[in-house]
Amino acid sequence: MIHLTRALVRRWLNALLHVADTPERTAAAFAMGVFFGFSPFLGLHTVLGLIVAFALKLNRVAVLLGVYANMPWIIAAYYASATMFGAVILRTQLPRGGMERLAGVFELSFTQGAFWKELGTLLSPLFWPFAIGSLIGAAALAAIAYFLALGFLASRRRLQNIIHKH
Q1: Distant-in-sequence, close-in-space partners of 60: CB < 8 Å, separation ≥ 6
Q2: What is the value of pTM for the model shown?
């Protein structure tokens, strides 16, 4: 799996290198995508990223690369951690017997209204911790992504300029 992740990162970085924009604008577009990729707006990442990219005239490829930085094998761990972080910030108490009640919910059929009602009852106290925690996490990851992408793009552009001069 690590090999797959490295290969994917290399492809993304190569795609970023072929963008004709300045390193700052490309890094900003990538960071904006990372923000939406890790934001609480699950299911709307791509649409929101493209709307902002068009509105701010950012490179759509760089935004999409950032949006899809949230890999399927880390999404559950990220959102669980972000929700716990939000719960700590907001001092939200987790529901008593939550794990047992959650297990009981999954004994019901998801086609029944009782499943969705009980699931909503269990998860509703976690809505604001989820929203706040993942917004803070998305902003922090976007800032990190900006500086990493900017450093990478600037150094690669300098290297390409040196190679083209010789």
Answers
A1: 29, 50, 53, 54
A2: 0.78
The letter for the amino acid at 57 is: K
Q: Indicate the SS3 state at residue 49.
A: helix
Q: Which residue has the tokens 């690590």?
A: 2
Q: Looking at the 3D structure of the chain, how many domains does it have?
A: 1
Query: And the tokens for 114?
Result: 């009782």
What would the pLDDT profile of 39-90 be if each residue is shown by its tens digit? 999 889 999 999 999 899 888 888 988 999 888 888 889 998 999 999 999 9
Domain coverage including residue 18: 2-165
Q: Helical H runs in the chain?
A: 2-17, 23-37, 45-56, 60-67, 72-90, 98-105, 113-123, 127-165
